[in-house]
Design a protein that fits this description.
Helices cover 41% and strands 14% of the residues. With 282 residues, it is an alpha+beta fold. This is Membrane protein.
Length: 282
């Protein structure tokens, strides 16, 4: 009877592969240990949070609430919870206004009260009118009790529409070089800002932006559309309060600590266990 041939054992991988795997495992363990020992730099977190909040318009950066492109997002249907931190009571003013010079829009987080420039300012001027001051005084009690920041955003129509016959007296190319429509929108909201702060509004709860004629909400091709684009938007974003609270918390923690070493945004405590506890009560 023929003997069975023994099967040859399968060939193993190269010997260096085992050593390489061990080395990679040790390196992974070492870096996990570094991360577990590190203290996250609070200043770095503060910078990142401020950058994110600025990009998304939540308190510190530019916010664009009323452009043609994002209008559907801002005024999408939603239920706004009625509370004291709301512009909702100001809607009563709209019911008394028959000319349509006030406009109110809202969604779950954002409320926008738009006021025509003819209501707030003198004709062709950046100064508040007496009627505009009276209207602001009526709204001021709601502004004062809101913990959320407010954005004052100024908008104008084209320069020809704003200046009327005086437009012809401008030097050629003035609108392209100096952008007077942007300057006019900014000066108007600055005067509104000064009036509000003079009446007791905390300045840290207000921010100001001027968009000129570059962020129209309605068409510029009709007189009615251009008239409605000349406005001031008072924007309440309820998401702002949460971001500002987080930034304030991080700002309190963002201080230099003795006995620590910073390497590529990782902070390591240099000391023996229990060291520094004796001075904790000082």
């Amino acid at each position: 009877m023929a003997r069975r041939k023994k099967k040859k054992a399968g060939e193993s991988g190269p010997a260096w592969l085992v050593t390489f795997s061990d080395m990679m495992t040790l390196m992974l363990t070492f870096f996990v240990l570094l991360v577990s020992m590190a203290v996250i730099d609070e200043r770095r977190k503060l910078t990142v949070l401020q950058s994110i909040s600025g990009q998304f318009g939540e308190g510190l950066g530019s916010f664009n609430p009323a452009t043609v492109n994002n209008q559907a997002r801002i005024v999408e249907p939603g239920v706004m919870d009625f509370d004291t931190d709301s512009l909702e009571p100001l809607k009563d003013m709209l019911w008394d206004d028959q000319r349509g010079d006030l406009n109110f829009q809202e969604n779950q987080f954002v409320q926008i009260l738009s006021i025509s420039d003819e209501v707030l300012f003198r004709p062709g001027s950046v100064e508040l009118s007496s009627g505009g001051m009276r209207l602001v005084d009526r709204m001021l009690p709601w502004f004062l009790r809101m913990p959320h920041p407010l954005l004052l955003a100024g908008h104008t129509a084209g320069l020809r529409e704003e200046m009327g016959e005086n437009y012809k007296a401008l030097p050629a190319g003035t609108e392209r070089q100096l952008s007077p429509s942007w300057e006019m929108s900014f000066l108007r909201v600055m005067n509104l800002y000064r009036y509000l702060t003079s009446r007791g509004m905390p300045p840290e709860r207000l921010s100001v932006e001027g968009f000129g004629s570059y962020r129209p909400r309605w068409t510029e091709k009709t007189p009615e559309g251009r008239k409605r684009n000349r406005r001031v938007d008072i924007v309440l974003d309820k998401r702002n309060k949460e971001w500002i609270d987080k930034i304030d918390m991080l700002r309190e923690k963002a201080r230099e600590r003795q006995g620590e070493f910073n390497y590529k945004d990782f902070r390591f405590r240099l000391g023996l266990p229990g060291e520094g506890q004796s001075g904790a009560g000082e």
